[in-house]
Automatic annotation (TrEMBL):
Annotated coiled-coil segments of the chain: none
Pfam families associated with the record: YjbQ
Protein name (database record): Secondary thiamine-phosphate synthase enzyme
Keyword rRNA processing included in the entry's annotation: no
Domain of life: Bacteria
Alphabetic keyword roster: Membrane, Transmembrane, Transmembrane helix
Transmembrane segments annotated in the record for this chain: 134-152
InterPro entries hit by this protein: UPF0047_YjbQ-like, YjbQ-like_sf
Native species: Enterococcus avium ATCC 14025
Amino acid sequence: MKVLTKELILESNGRRVTYHNITEQVKAFVEETGVKNGLCLVQSQHTTCSVIFEEFMHDLDFNGDDYLQVDMNAFLDRLIPRELSENTNYRYPGPAHKDFLFSLSHSDHPSDPAVLLNGDAHIRASMFGASETFALNDGLLAIGVVGSIYFIDFDQNRIRKRVCRIQVLGE
């Protein structure tokens, strides 16, 4: 059995929820591996990001977001409001957590505590989960005709690079 891994580096836009349709990159990696039957795991290593399987929409708004994503964001904004200032909607981040994050020498957190006002992003990502697993049959992802794989960054506080890991297992 083969186990092969690839990382995609994706950039968030930092001003709104970022959706990356990574379907073609995942398909290309599956083909590159030569695995015919097995599993394909697509996973985020970030606690404010999710991987989802959803229908591809052909209609886009002026931001380039498809209508299904716009609808999902509108629903989530009503359910889980943005954390725009300290001590409003969320207890996160607490003082001990801020101290911990700012003490890390390898941290990608700038010294501005406002970038930590992303409790909403953590809750949203927890609801959707960090990964999706797909069956591979005869070298193809079992995702149907309109199924697409999206990497979502729910953190809207700053531009940054995100890692999406693809792992193919099989023979």
